[in-house]
Amino acid sequence: MWAxxxxxxxxxxxxxxxxxxxxxxxIRFAPGSPFxxxxxxxxxxxxxxxxxxxFDKDLHVQYGLRLRGxxxxxxxxxxxxxxxxxxxxxxxxxxxxxxxxxxxxxxxTFGVALGIIAAARHNRIPDYLSMSVALTGICVPNFLLGPLxxxxxSLALSWLPVAGWPDGWSWGELxxxxxxxxxxxxxxxxxxxxLTRAGMLDVLNKDFIRTxxxxxxxxxVVFLKHVLKNGITPVVSYAGPMAAYILTGSVVVExxxxxxxxxxxxVDSSLARDYDVVMGALLIYSTLVIGFNxxxxxxxxxxxxxxxLT
Amino acid sequence: xxxxxxxALCLVALAAPGCDGCGKAKGPRMxxxxxxxxxxxxxxxxxxxxxxHRINIxxxxxxxxxxxxxxxxKPGIAEKWDLSEDGTVYTFHLRDAKWSxxxxxTAKDFEWSWKRVLDPALGAEYAAQIYDYLKNAKSYYGxxxxxxxxxxxxxxxxxxxxxxxxxxxxxxxKRHVDGLKKLVETEVKNEKVAALLKAAVDEAAKRPDVGxxxxxxxxxxxxxxxxxxxxxxxxxxDLAAFFTYFPVHRATVEKHGSAWTKPENSVCNGxxxxxxxxxxxxxxxxxxxxYWDAAHVNDxxxxxxxxxxxxxxxxxxxxKTIDWLTDVPREYIDELMKxxxxxxxxxxTVYFYGFNCKKGATxxxxxxxxxxxxxxxxxIVKHITMAGEAPALSIxxxxxxxxxxxxxxxFNVAEARKLLAEAGFxxxxxxxxxxILYNTQESHKKxxxxxxxMWRTNLGIETDLRNxxxxxxxxxxxxxxxxxxxxxxxxxxxxxxxxIDMFMKDNGNNNTGxxxxxxxKLVTEAARERDPKKRMGILxxxxxxxxxxxxxxxxxxxxxxxxxxxxxxxxxxxxxxTHPLQGARVSGAAP
Lengths: 310, 591
Prior knowledge:
heterodimer; A: mainly alpha; MetI-like fold; two-stranded antiparallel ribbon; 14 helices; 2 strands; B: alpha+beta; D-Maltodextrin-Binding Protein, domain 2; Dipeptide-binding Protein, domain 3; 3 domains; 20 helices; globular
């Protein structure tokens, strides 16, 4: 167990290093610079600006400085916003984690529930119903779902706020989180329900289920203890990357609901060639992906005794 | 199950009170504005864009200010001023104004702040906005930049050394000679660089040293600021209201470094002060009691939101959580235009196409003219932009007092065909395929497609459309990697010059490869002309040349697109779309 953890953590660090290096190389060779603008900057001014941010130094020196920064927990400086990347990204990360956690819970709860219903009533009306819901969830992209939700629940019915992030503990404030959470989780609800259904149907035909039934166990116990535990493995492996994905936000949902999340930083910083922010956001995302994959692998060993962590 | 979800949500929602007022903390009614984006930096010396401008004209004040109604120049921190006979020396007399911490705003603050912008270490993008006008400022900036270049030479990347050396050739001064000589020795192996450095030694020897005290701004005493200009500049009072010329509080800046603009540190001298700044969420301003004219400032706090999605902002406006929209969704502009709370007027911005005058078929003036005449601008504003924009026959928008823009010929297919035939392409035969370059955006695409179609039907020539992301577009624009390019330009000050001098041969914003000696001569002459009427005449002659030679073809003038609620007072449409807020307020009940 410990050996496994150490091995994986070392591997994770190596991966992060490779990602940082690749990312540095790619963005630095992309055309354009953080300083290009519609109004051309006179060359003497540009030289001073580059000097201010250390862009006059050799690339390998800049790369070295950047890596040294990471070692001390400093993600760099945002040229666009004239403040440190830590100051810029960590508040966004907090919002994204909160919104993502809610969306994650919604996705897993409703996804698994829909999947169980579909599997338990295989090829009957509840199955068709839940699977149609799932299909809709997969098909309707969130740039459509978001505005639709706003149209219905905010504009037409006036039940929920149009956009924004809670700024207090009143219901009026907290309710701002509902629509974005739904918009963010819908596609995952759909996907998880299909995975759950498929996984469970697969297990239902296995010998040990027949044995369980033959032992005279009630259908409820068979289903929730034996079928679900074994059938849910695909959901668990999906949940890891999904968690990383959902927790780092979505540029679409964040724009529609005007939330200061991580998703927008990915896009905005790349467009602005705000190098340190691009790398910072990517490294945070990568860390989350690596972390959740580790958690998932450990979860396997609890769910399935055949899996050993080595 | 999903029915259940929806039903549950509905129940929860029903239990809640109506949500029209969500997003308001209890307290006084705030004036809520959508600022459209998160401000990049609120340091006036470093500031660039519009969202920052909207905030900084609230918290800072320069020597002069714009009137929100008619954009006339009014006294700001300067109570009055005198101009010397030759138009080059302004003496500003400051009023009794205070910083938000109670200290007096002095002439020394201005002197220090302007010189700060000229300090290469600050890296101010708009430094030229000062050094292009103040006496000796450009030489001082060049000398100081050379100091910095020499200091950091050892750490300079090899591929940057050539540019750095060229910079030294152009700007190094006498005091740099010794340093340069030493560099020549260390760079001996790098032949090209060494050669430039040698040239720099000779050039530097010829240039006198210009120190910071020789820059044309001097605080004679606490209340008197003497500004000496390189040449008479008829729009200098306009510039004095520009953000690069705002004063900043020296002690605060020196103490906090780049963090001085944060609310807890910020010291300002405008009608409002910064109370709270939550990045990418909101900025809250409150009345600055120390402001000299505080009696005429509304005490309503101002909240600025950075909502980028115009649809989202519009929904919030409809739900009364925003009082003033500075932009509106383009999708239903025709509906919005019918509403009484939609406010629109001419805007000091032109949309135009540039031609590459250095390569390809567009080098030929007749081709450029043919392409320009074959564009039906009326069609574009009527069916594509649709917000009441005016088709442009000049590059300078109308509305500048005393200036009547020169005009180009209107849409004329017969003439266009004739010109194209003269250029050797009758009926468009043999015309090489050209490409329209624009940055990725739906509206640019629509306009480019329309023009593509016009050129095809009117002239029989084929065009490709190419869209690239903003930064690549800028890169290609400055390297002249295009045949035809979409562009836009916002006037910096209310004078034709802001649209005209950019097409001088060596101007960094020319971006067409076009150059015309007479044009350059006229623009330079206009800058020296003291008689306003004559000066406008000269600029008009220059504009006429530009429209005759057609390195660019103006397409339309923008309009401002604001929406503010009926209970908002004190906001006025104006061509600069700039709105001082001290007189503005919203009177309706807090939602």
